[in-house]
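To close the section, here is one more complete example, presented without commentary so you can practise reading it yourself. The ligand is 2-acetamido-2-deoxy-beta-D-glucopyranose.
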Amino acid sequence: MTQNMSFLRKFFLYKCLFALTFWNYANLSVEDELFTSVSNNFPENGSNKKIKSLPPLYGKSPQCKAGSDWVVIQNTTESLSLSEITNCNVKKLVAFLSNFRQGSRLQNLTLTNVSVNWNYLMEIFQTVWHSSIEYFNTNNVTQLSDIKSYNFNYSGTSMKALTMKKTIITDLYFVQDDLYKIFADMNIANMTIADSEMIHMICPSSKSRFRYLNFLKNDLTDLLFQKCENLLQLETLILKKNKFESLRKVSSMTSYMKSLKYLDMSNNLLRHDGAEVQCQWAESLTELDLSSNQLADAVFECLPANVKKLSLANNQISNVPRGMVELKSLEELNLASNRLADLPGCSGFTSLQFLNIEMNSILTPSADFFQSCPRVRELQAGHNPFKCSCELQAFIRLERQSGGKLFGWPAAYECEYPESLRGTQLKDFHLSLLACNTTLMLVTALLLTLVLVATVAFLCIYLDVPWYMRMTWQWTQTKRRAWHSPRVDQGNVLQFHAFISYSERDSLWVKNELIPNLEKGEGCIKLCQHERNFIPGKSIVENIIDCIEKSYKSIFVLSPNFVQSEWCHYELYFAHHKLFSENSNSLILILLEPIPAHLIPARYHKLKALMAKRTYLEWPKERSKHALFWANLRAAISINLLKADENLYEETD
Ligand SMILES: *[C@@H]1O[C@H](CO)[C@@H](O)[C@H](O)[C@H]1NC(C)=O
Ligand SMILES: *[C@@H]1O[C@H](CO)[C@@H](O)[C@H](O)[C@H]1NC(C)=O
Ligand SMILES: *[C@@H]1O[C@H](CO)[C@@H](O)[C@H](O)[C@H]1NC(C)=O
Ligand SMILES: *[C@@H]1O[C@H](CO)[C@@H](O)[C@H](O)[C@H]1NC(C)=O
Ligand SMILES: *[C@@H]1O[C@H](CO)[C@@H](O)[C@H](O)[C@H]1NC(C)=O
Ligand SMILES: *[C@@H]1O[C@H](CO)[C@@H](O)[C@H](O)[C@H]1NC(C)=O
Ligand SMILES: *[C@@H]1O[C@H](CO)[C@@H](O)[C@H](O)[C@H]1NC(C)=O
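Output:
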């Protein structure tokens, strides 16, 4: 294939060239060629026109100073390293190098800062080619000009590896083959042309011995080695940092390279949009680096079937489609710095051993990863924006269960959300089992409720807490009322604090318990007892009523006995005196013994109402409660005691 392509350099030079061509080579239609070059779009069938190179812009042989010599950087029997090779000393160098015929001991030659024209460079190469040198390196070959066809004699060489770094061509316009053919047809094992702004390389014209090609950091495009059937021994191809765009074209490039094992396509502009024709990869390809490209999920439709080690780091993958890909040999997968939201399953990658998924967008990784990927020995999942919540607990447990399979644990695993936990290592993030397990939480709540109910029941049954509470409540209510109740105009007939009424059968209790307790206590409570303070000549009822009217309060000691024998005495009084209305403060009921409802005769509405309202003080059987009972009772009586006392004293004065 003849390709008359221009090997062009910087853009301002193109413009410069326009001007030059316009008046120097006006008859040549250079413009078209130029534009196609600028857009990196090379016609496969370039025109067969031979375009002469321009006169060199740079590198015109300067006046050679006498004694301008190279600089020796290293000079041993096996290895020689020289610098500052110019058009002035190059003839001397060629003569010097031709001393090292095949069989001599010099193996390595390195030339740095070489500034010679094309023909001299080729003379150096040709001399080295037929010498004993096995490793030939050039670095910083500048001002390479005057490129034209050179008849290189490829026969019989000791050379194993050629490495050219920073080869800068100042020639603007030349026949592409003249340059590329020299290198493409070198039948050596290793060749590196790096950092040289190279835009193309042609296919070797016969079966090549290249096993290792490294074109790192150039400007190569999808047109490289298309349908090139002469790279059958090539095992390693490095095209890192070039301008490749189509993953499919890259795959078809490899399809002729029957020995290709390792391909580095990292740092290109690769895309793949799925809908295209099927990809065709070399079957031998086992290691592929596609990192730092522009690949999205569709890349999984275009991968070499036998790949063992694959890097897709730093692309735009957001999902590993399940079921679509089957890479049975894949052992190592690098998906770092993509946009994945979860760990991929291993359904398509049954041999996977290493997975790197750092720096993606995984909030809560699914915890069934190691079940789905039993062969994985190492999972590198750090530097993701983990959301520290209950769901993440499962993943943290996974760490413990997996036995050190999480690479970078614990330093690389930190909470990102919620904000309050940002920066906390997952290792230190604990939520109680309870908070995360709903069933457990419900059971616990239920148990707690049961315990509470049991405690309350126990308190009620064995300690009679409700009674204490009721008494305390009544006591506080009474105190409150005492504080707030308005001055009640009782007239000036009051002589007693309280009138006390009870059944004859309960008199023992009244005399032994009630009276002593009330009268002897502080406050000097005066009680009116209808027996004790009996006025002769009046009926019992009259006496009672008299007693009631002279007393500030009325205490009734209620019991079944009282209800059956005495209540009727008061019915009449209740009927006539609104004083004992339900709201009255004057009425104090003491329930000495419970009164079964059926014992209360149906006509005693008032009593029933009072009983129903439970506005009575209950006499507790337990001794321990007596103190509180008396306090309560005394408080109930002591309402407005001062005012009552005033009245009492007025009366006695
Ligand atoms: C390339 O050139 C050959 C012969 O010159 C011609 O037959 C073929 O059609 C050309 N291909 C393209 C793509 O121009
Ligand atoms: C390297 O050293 C040898 C002597 O050790 C000398 O003869 C030879 O000229 C030197 N080579 C260069 C390129 O200076
Ligand atoms: C020659 O170069 C090769 C490759 O760079 C290196 O491995 C080897 O050690 C060198 N030999 C000597 C004698 O410097
Ligand atoms: C490359 O070599 C030229 C001279 O040959 C020199 O001027 C230039 O500074 C060198 N560049 C580097 C990076 O060494
Ligand atoms: C190449 O040239 C540059 C600039 O002149 C100089 O700094 C550098 O040391 C040279 N390299 C060698 C290996 O001599
Ligand atoms: C090529 O080089 C070899 C070895 O130096 C020599 O024998 C042969 O004659 C050369 N061929 C031509 C055409 O110069
Ligand atoms: C060619 O390069 C490969 C990879 O760097 C290396 O393993 C091999 O030893 C090299 N071969 C020679 C002959 O330098």
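Once you have examined the tokens, check your reading against these statements. The first helix runs from residue 11 to 24. The first strand starts at residue 71 and ends at 75.
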